[in-house]
Amino acid sequence: MDLIAKKALEKLLRSAEGAIGKQNANEDLSGSARAIQIRFSPASFPDYLNITTHAEKTSCNASLRLAERDGAISIHWDSRAGSFERIQLIRLVNGDSLAKVLGVTPRWDAIGTAAAAFVPHLQNHPVLSDVLDAWSGGSSIRSTRPDKKAIQDWLDAIKVVDICRDPSKDKRTDMPIRRLSTALFYDSKRIAAIAPLIDVLTQGKTNGLPRDPEEFFQEMGLVKYPPTLLMVASRGNWSRMVVKLEDDFVSISAPYLGFHPPSIVGLNFPQEPITLLTVENLTTFHEIAELLRIPSDDGPVLVIYTGGMPSPAWRRVYRMALSSLTEGSSVLHWGDIDAGGFRIANKLAEDCDQCERRLLLHLMDVLPAASRKSLSDAEVASITAICIRHNWDAEAKSVEFHRSAIEQESLPVELPTIQRRAR
Asked: What is d(CA 124, CA 319) in angstroms, rounded to the nearest whole number?
């Protein structure tokens, strides 16, 4: 096929894909007021007018006349230029015929194939309807467009999410991500390759902020390796805070202790108010562990490292700890001041709500001495929505005013005070 003719037909098909759906792709549109056409003018398609030789124009005209013979288009000729000499415009007659002439699958067919594949999953994943709508309008979702490979990628992502959400799954243990990937797809890196689609499915929206895969994988219970839950207690309370294992009791002694989450079956705390603080980052956890070795009159303190976004196995132990607290105990979280940090806090707050506790935030409303970056409008909106949900007014106002991302490690280590806990 002549290259200029092919370019014109491809442009016509793109217009058709943007304007018509599968239900009317075969309609005779040649005389319709909604006719899809390309005028061979300097503004619409200058390539045709820029042809310099008679042979090239004859070749282009011949290719387009073959497309007309196949029922794909109609051609309107310039009568002043002589018979079949110069084309004024081409108009779509049949979308499927045009796609066949070009040897491609039209978007409406690809959307139909995707819709049929997604139907069994729409109830559990309604966001797939938004994916189909975006594809129908010519947009991509996380770099995917409607083709065979993309459809299979989405189906594989659905399979991963459904397995992680299965109510019968043992919530005490997390799954090594590469082992699950190999079991499902015979490819240890397959789940990582479709991470952006898993992100969309777990958020339930196509326009959500892209998250770091490690964040939502851990939220789903998919981990690189089985995690160790780290705990540290304040000096003078080491023997009073006890972790009950399946066949033993272990005091939380200095400098800190690590546990395999599934092995923990209970927690025994002093029968007095204590401070339970969760910490997002490992460096800060170790610094707090050193600080807690200094004698203090502030009362019992227990600090637990979340390891970033806490996994289901970690959260099971966290809820166990919340349920073991006495009346008057304080529950706080300290994490990064960014969208990810507040998403972590949101998950912990959900567990606190479930256990009839209120989560407060520690040092997440501070002035930015050193900022990693400025927060985008979307990030500020996301953080604000979380803060409104949990009545974190000071944090919301601080983020809206400063609009700065602050890493936890950039702040001096400070334990919660009685005044801060009383907010």
From this structure: 27
Q: How many residues does the chain have?
A: 423
- Give residue 144's identity as a one-letter amino acid code: T
Distance CA 319, CA 314 (A): 9
Question: How is residue 126 written in tokens?
Answer: 């309604």
Name residue 165's amino acid: R
| pLDDT number for residue 19 | 81
Tokens (6 digits) for 230:
């780290």
Task: Please identify every stretch of the chain with a pLDDT value under 50, giving residue numbers as ranges.
Answer: 22-33, 418-423
Measured CA to CA, the distance from residue 62 to residue 55 in angstroms comes to 10
The pLDDT, as a whole number, for residue 423 is 38
Please determine, looking at this structure, whether the domain spanning 229-421 carries the CATH number 3.40.1360.10: yes
Q: Is 247 exposed, middle or buried (0-12, 13-18, 19+ CB in 10 A)?
A: exposed
- Rounded to whole angstroms, the Cα distance separating 175 from 163 reads 11
Decide: residue 246, CB within 10 A, 0-12 exposed, 13-18 middle, 19+ buried: exposed
SS3 state of residue 359: strand
Say how many C-beta atoms besides its own lie within 10 A of residue 298's C-beta.
12
Task: Please state the pTM of the whole predicted model.
Answer: 0.79
At 305-340, the pLDDT tens digits run 999 999 999 999 999 999 999 999 999 999 999 999
**Could you tell me the residue ranges of all domains in the chain?**
3-102, 107-223, 229-421
Q: Backbone phi, then psi, for 306, in 5-degree steps?
A: -85, -25
Q: φ, ψ for residue 208 (rounded to 5)? A: -70, 160
Q: Could you give the CA distance from residue 392 to residue 282 in angstroms, rounded to a whole number?
A: 24
